[in-house]
Write a structure and sequence with these properties.
alpha+beta, five-stranded mixed beta sheet, rod-shaped
Length: 527
């Protein structure tokens, strides 16, 4: 932004952004860019005619560049800016001092050529034209200038002007050659210098042409907003113009000179304000930074408290999880133990007695008769059936595509000549949408209910109904048996497993039963 506004001669804006760049570079500790920004700020002071401001600004960079060779380009920019600043104030000794310091640096050839050209300008300003020619003539032969027509044209112009001041006939050739290059590359600043030198060249030999070049210089200086060059042109026009025109140019000179003094004072005040505001902003930033550090410290303390609470919460959650896992493990162990007890009880109550009777029958009866053989075979078949039923009650449950068949087989196994079981809605139930663990729960719950029915209900009819109710599956069981009054003891001994299984999958269950009026229960689980 600083470069952009400088090219558009918006110097106050350019100065502001270069100052911002300097402050940002100081924060980033980027010494190279600090020096670079200061050099441009000094250049803006000099371009605005504020030479004391240019000197003061350029000197700010000296602590960064003295006693180090890390920033040769930055040194060159600062020394060159100081050299130009003293040149414009006719302080030739200081100007040569800083130009020579710039020349001693290890920089690229083009920068060395520019520095020597600036030293030649000091000699021209001192009217030491022969010294200037000794410097400029060898420079015009440098091969590095083949790709730098702007610098080459400047050397030719200054060499031609020096020849003119020493009455050397070579002057016109160099002045004219420089003018052609500058016209070709549209170098407005260079054209202004060429027109001015040609105006001086023709001053005595061709006054009309000298005036024309002076007017061209003034026009170009106006285009590029160079106040000092406009004033120099007006001085030339005052000398070379007839009395009527001279008076006009004199009035114009006085008006511009008065305006430029005011403008420069205003510009100096603007530059000072920009620096002041920047310092004020810097101080405020320091204050804000201190406040920010305090806030960060407070935020840090809050974060520590938050982390402490989160840690406590995590540990609590971990403890609860461990407790629940341990509890679940204990429940599983207890369930496994209860299952083993139930199986052992079945084996003892239902199977052991039958086996004992079969063994006693085989030992005491004559098995050679067909009737006794038939009785023994019937007893063995009964034992086999009971063994298979116990195995089914505790075997793995098919939860895939054969689940419905397995469930129907379970229900059918309790259908006898004495008990008729009716089933409704089992085929229309969306079993594919129900999770496998829920299918297992449904199977085991119905198994528990049917076992309970077989042992206690004394019914001759039972009905199981499946129906989908919105996003839930509801299963109703009812029989016409003796029923029971469900107190805590009866529930714990008979149907507690049913209730626990349903609640474990976030389901609900209701028992509706009274003594001698049948047994009813309804449970629902989310699909």
């Amino acid at each position: 932004m600083g470069y952009k506004h400088y090219q558009n001669t918006k110097l106050d804006s350019s100065y502001y952004y270069f100052n911002q760049a300097k402050q940002e570079s100081i924060r980033e500790k980027d010494t190279s860019r600090i020096i670079h920004s200061i050099a441009w700020m000094a250049q803006i002071h000099i371009f605005s005619g504020d030479y004391s401001g240019g000197e003061a600004t350029a000197v700010e960079a000296l602590p960064f560049i003295e006693n180090t060779n890390k920033y040769p380009n930055g040194k060159w920019n600062i020394y060159n800016a100081l050299g130009n600043n003293y040149l414009y104030t006719a302080d030739h000794d200081h100007s040569l001092y800083y130009f020579n310091k710039a020349l001693s640096l290890k920089t690229d050839p083009i920068e060395k050529i520019s520095t020597k050209s600036n030293i030649a300008l000091v000699y021209i300003d001192q009217n030491k034209f022969h010294n200037a020619i000794k410097i400029l003539l060898p420079l015009t032969l440098k091969k590095e200038l083949s790709n730098n027509p702007e610098i080459y044209a400047r050397l030719l112009d200054n060499l031609g002007y020096s020849y003119f001041k020493t009455a050397n006939p070579k002057a016109f050739n160099y002045l004219n050659q420089s003018l052609k290059i500058r016209l070709r590359i549209l170098d407005n600043w260079g054209l202004m210098a060429s027109y001015y030198h040609l105006s001086e060249y023709y001053n005595k030999s061709h006054p009309k042409l000298a005036t024309d070049y002076a007017l061209l210089t003034y026009k170009k200086a106006t285009e590029i907003k160079s106040i000092d060059d406009r004033l120099k042109c007006l001085e030339l026009l005052i000398k070379n113009s007839p009395s009527s025109q001279s008076k006009k140019h004199s009035l114009q000179y006085l008006h511009i000179n008065d305006s430029v003094n005011k403008a420069r004072q205003k510009m100096k005040n603007q530059f000072a304000k920009i620096k002041y505001d920047s310092k004020k902003e810097k101080d405020e930033n320091i204050k804000l930074k201190e406040q920010k550090i305090l806030l960060l410290e407070q935020e840090k303390n809050k974060n520590l408290l938050f982390y402490f609470i989160v840690t406590i919460g995590f540990l609590t959650t971990l403890f609860i999880t461990y407790f629940l896992v341990a509890k679940n493990k204990r429940e599983k162990i207890q369930t496994s133990y209860n299952t083993e007890i139930r199986i052992a009880k079945k084996l003892h109550d239902e199977l052991a007695n039958d086996v004992y009777h079969a063994m006693t029958f085989a030992e005491t009866q004559d098995l050679s008769t067909s009737q006794n053989k038939e009785i023994l075979l019937t007893n063995l078949d009964t034992i086999y059936s009971r063994t298979r039923n116990i195995s089914k009650e505790n075997s793995n449950i098919e939860t895939g595509s054969n689940f419905v068949s397995t469930l129907k087989e379970l229900i059918a196994s309790f259908n006898t000549n004495e008990v008729n079981i009716l089933v409704n809605g089992i085929d229309s139930t969306p079993w594919t949408k129900i999770e496998n663990n829920k299918k297992i729960i449904i199977y085991r719950v119905l198994q528990e209910l049917l076992v309970n029915m077989k042992k206690h209900s004394q019914c001759n009819l039972a009905v199981i109904t499946f129906k989908k109710n919105e996003d839930k599956l509801q299963i109703d069981y009812t029989d016409n048996g003796v029923g029971a009054v469900l107190d805590k003891r009866n529930k714990r001994n008979g149907l507690q497993n049913v209730e626990n299984r349903i609640l474990s999958i976030n389901g609900t269950i209701n028992f509706d039963t009274k003594s001698h009026k049948g047994f009813k229960t309804s449970f629902a689980l989310p699909i």
